[in-house]
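Example record

Each entry pairs one chain with its bound ligand, acetyl coenzyme *A.
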Amino acid sequence: MADNKAKLTIAETSVDLDVLSPTLGSKVIDIRTLGSKGYYTYDPGFTSTASCESKITFIDGDNGILLHRGFPIGQLATESTYLEVCYILLYGEAPTQEQYDNFKTTVTRHTMIHEQITRLFNGFRRDSHPMAVLCGVTGALAAFYHDALDVSNPVHRDITAYRLLSKMPTVAAMCYKYSIGQPFVYPKNDLSYAGNFLHMMFATPCEEYVVNPVLERAMDRIFILHADHEQNASTSTVRTAGSSGANPFACIAAGIASLWGPAHGGANEACLRMLEEIKTVEHIPEFIKRAKDKNDSFRLMGFGHRVYKNYDPRATVMRETCHEVLKELNLNDSLLEVAMELERIALNDPYFIEKKLYPNVDFYSGIILKALGIPSNMFTVIFAIARTIGWIAHWNEMHEDGLKIARPRQLYTGYDERDFKSEIKKK
Ligand code: ACO
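Structure tokens for the complex follow.
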């Protein structure tokens, strides 16, 4: 991969560094030898640092391109199912019919969780945020799958992937049912992955829930569009946690914690809250003004992205799906009107144009989820279900490539060495 050299000169010292050429994207300077010369690089937030080598997902933020194993997200969203995308992310190739059928059967047959887990829920307050419950319960799964699990064994890692992929919708739906005081609904094997999730969310023991195919497809699409996004905060968290050889269920719980923040997966919930706050089209200019004001911490939620400096390709599909769902349900959501006008105004405003702030995937997903009857505090939980496959694929790739514990260095700006003198009275 190294087809070029870079020379770094620091005072009298000069260091030769390899320049690595990826299949796609920017060249990468290999700085691994710098530490031995007594220098580190400084890059808070990792804006210029490739933390690993990966073959899973490629993003070209300037041109709005997202590829999973080489396949464009637009094609995957319109021509595949979420489980097909999961297979592609995990194994690198599109499945044959037989491979797909086997994969689907295996995932479907692992959806139940240990009955003991249901008791764990009682320890949570009913009004807990479902992300707190999801994080806790996913971490607790480590207690059920630990002793016999050898993370260096590819077969064990494969089984872990099935378990996580299958059980996450079950746990997520249980978080919802617990929060509203309804009994848990067990998975149904004759339903699709998305259909089963909707069933576990909305069926009750008193009434059958008939899955609407348009809504099922919309749910599946939301899962596809959130499946992976290379080395984002939560995926990097999963890799960092896993780099010590930690239990994968605990690593995924760490990823869930990272995803929860409003700058990451929490943005869809925050975006819907913002649209509700804006309420009507007339109030938009006031919010745009606030977003541009340096002295106001308010940001337009669902706008901007660390990597995309162009329209997020996932937002395009999400926008279409949003219209499909509202049409199917015959809903005339005023929030959609606010969203579309907000998008129009922001895309024509010099502030947003100069800073390359475009709508991201979360801008429309909240409206779809709301139309599906999903409460806003569950939005990030749904993101977590979808992203689980990305987390596992990266965790797996990291193990395949050979573990190296993540251990960044720092630019220390604290005290120099000084004498300690205690002022505390000792008994
Ligand atoms: N509204 C108003 N101004 C913004 C916004 C926004 N949504 N996003 C960025 N800016 C401005 C910043 O104030 C900053 O201005 P300055 O250069 O004058 O200081 C400039 O644009 C760059 O912003 P940064 O925060 O440095 O950009 P970064 O790449 O670190 O942040 C982020 C990306 C966190 C996504 C940011 O755009 C944001 O907070 N957006 C809103 C939250 C959101 O929608 N998050 C979802 C991300 S997608 C996902 O996780 C699935």
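The mean pLDDT is 94.
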